[in-house]
Amino acid sequence: MATPLEEWVEECADLCKPDKVYWCDGSEEEACRIVKIGMTEEKIGDNKIFYELDHKTYPNSYLHRSHPTDVARTEHLTFVCHPNKEIAGPNNNWMHPDEAKKLLTKLSDGCMRGRTMYVLPYMMGHPDSRYAKACVQLTDVSYVAVSMRIMTRMGKNILKKIGNSKDFVKGIHSVGDFDPNKRYIMHFPDENLVWSIGSGYGGNALLGKKCFSLRIASWQGFREGWLAEHMAVIGVEDPQGKVTYMVAAMPSACGKTNLAMLNSALPGYKVWTLGDDIAWLNIGPDGRLYAINPEIGFFGVAPGTSMKTNPNMILTLKAGMFYPLFFTNTALNTDTNEPWWEGLDGAVPKNLLDWQGRKYDPATGTKAAHPNSRFTVSIYQCPTVSKEFDNPKGVPISAIIFGGRRTKLIPLVYESFNWQHGVFCGARMASETTAATTHHTGMLRRDPMAMISFCGYNMADYFGHWLGMDKRMKHAPRIFCVNWFRIDEQGKFMWPGFGENIRVLKWMIDRIENRVSAKETPIGRVPHLKDLEMKGLKIPKENLEKLFEVKPDEWKPEVEEMQKFFGQFGRKMPDGIVDELNNLKRKVNLA
Ligand code: GTP
Ligand code: SPV
Ligand code: MN
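^ thats the input. predicted complex w/ manganese (II) ion below
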């Protein structure tokens, strides 16, 4: 008798009609074999799937060039298919599940002809964790099959775990013919199913990541009393050796990976890495909020990564402990056979191929690496990985940080007055868009909790769920907001960022430990300058003051924008948020 899993795989194979079906065991030997297939047999246009890079400087590494139209998540082609539109909310594209399935069935008929269908059993979360979920993804491309091995706990032991049960998360993925007109990323939350066709890129194709661990898991969390969030998870160790765990929600390409691997500029302080993109937050038996990172890899932004900005990441990329490591859409230095991207240390190499494999001429003013070029690498290679990383219980969280990319207005750091106000601070977040999605970059967009692209249900209900967490926790974390991206009149960053951000984290710890007071402003509490450890950093006092300035008049248009955004949700908006908005309006003289 076939198991429910075997039946499902067979059904999908009947529809997609691959030449072969191959069940992955997740071993290193298998990964080597699949990478070889990608280097020799498989192609995207004229490009092979993988090119071997120099293994002396970047051990186990390969370059992947995606289809040129397939370089980022495509939010306009992403749908959340609840049985009714109201559940999906104005924050999601919606299609009725029957209609979506009809469309996908048509597009998938024979889509894997001539290809192999890889069956990938994997776990999001540590298999011993009660919060972990067993999943199976199907895919027809080696890049995705092996990327899933880097990003998730993949292996045949998961098949045993699933056994005869129907309780596993399903993912169907095919690159189809990469036609953006036939590209869809569809979610069926009530069936724990993600179905994606036409894209091989990151969040569109590694279905355990954004699709399951955020969009579907956020819906599960809503119904089961937990939170699935777009957050980094870190432990900050102070000079006495005490570790304070924090999570940080920041939109795509706004600093989570860099924060997760922060190399402290303050002696005695150290940041331990637990996650750089996704956190699942559960209330533990002791009433505290616990975080696990369901992933085991980084799919990180390459441009801007250097020994100066993020030395721990450069060391991770060169560590060579785990097979393999991918660079996607970076440039290639043909003299050394090494990957290259804008912002990497040293001079621009003379002989570069750009991300599409064409000879690069800097005189054209274009970038050699795609701005959303990325690396895929195991977290176990990270020199700062926390010893708690594999703890199935997760780590107890003392602070929640919300941070956007704002060139103006938003202070470097402020603390919320209480939980409800903190949730409002998250809900009113906005950020300038980046290359992580196929939008225009640099436009201000409302992005509550950095989840606008990932909340798999009506965001008004999501806000209500956040507000309600407070009553169920005995020790709620403090909520802070940060902005590393303020610029001055000359267009230069006013705060040096990266390793210097530890000064901001230290202030948070001092607040949590009740060691310092803070200055009340209409939007929250900002530091007294004397409480910010500035030793070793020269920033003129006027600039520092500017980083914490809150002028009610400047906030008026911002508050009007928030109100407009919240307005979309109509009467569904929870009272707690409406009350906080009204308070703020009064404080900036708008009411
Ligand atoms: P996703 O993987 O898309 O979710 O992004 P992320 O939030 O992990 O962003 P990441 O840390 O990769 O940073 C994206 C970009 O922001 C990179 O180009 C970084 O160099 C830049 N960045 C990160 N932290 C800072 C900072 O403190 N200051 C400044 N100025 N730039 C930063
Ligand atoms: C993001 O865009 O937030 C990412 C990259 O982390 S992707 O996996 O493509 O979503
Ligand atoms: Mn992300």
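The chain has a mean pLDDT of 97.
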